[in-house]
Every structure is written in structure tokens, then in C-alpha cells.
Amino acid sequence: MNKKELARFKKLIQAERERVLERLGVIGEEITDRTSGQSSGSQGYSNHMADIGSDAMGQEQAFMHASQGNEYLRRLDDALIRVEKGTYGVCEDCTNKIPVKRLQAYLAARLCVTCKSKRERLQRS
Ligand SMILES: [Zn+2]
Q: How far is the CA of 112 from the centre of ligand 1 (A)?
């Protein structure tokens, strides 16, 4: 992947990361910290928190969502590190390039489709 592509994915991952954070309701220090000074006229957070803490969602379910979100966040962070290293978009198992289309569909992808399905089969057995 060339530098231009890496830069493009870096932006996509960062945007996705912030979206997840917002969803998780941790619009705390981190985001304000990172975006302060460069947040000119963003959409704002008019409807944030609207769906958090609703009675419809039980505690346990909310927790499930949160932990899944955290796991996803961790993967996105990981992807960012790989962007920095220049190894983003390279399959960890076979070192083939992961198709850009797949990366766009799942930014945190670390394996090509073949290796991913191989691993899933192994995990299930
Ligand atoms: Zn592979």
C-alpha cells in the first residue's frame, strides 16, 4: 500500500474510531483532547446519549454492546499502529495484500479472506 493510500485509511480509521467512542458514550477527555483546536464547525453532538440508558436495553445487553465496542476500538487502534508501521493492509498470516475493498468494508481487518476463514474454522473446532 502506498503512502497516499495509507494516509487515506488512517483518516478513515480515525473517523471510525471517534464514531465508536461517541457511540460508547465516552466523549470524554480523549476526543476533546485530540480534536481541540481543529474542530471547526463539526456537526456537534445534538443527539448524543439519546439511546443510552433506555429501559428497553437491559444492563447486561448494554454491557455486551460496550465490550464489543471496546474490542472493536482496540482493533482500530491496532490498525492505526499498523498504518504507522506501514504494514496496514498486509495479511498477518500469508503476508499477501488484503484487497482494499475488504479493508474499506472492515477497517480493522488483519487477515485476507482466505486466512480469516481458515482461522475461523480452526477456532470452531
Ligand atoms: Zn492471508
A: 4
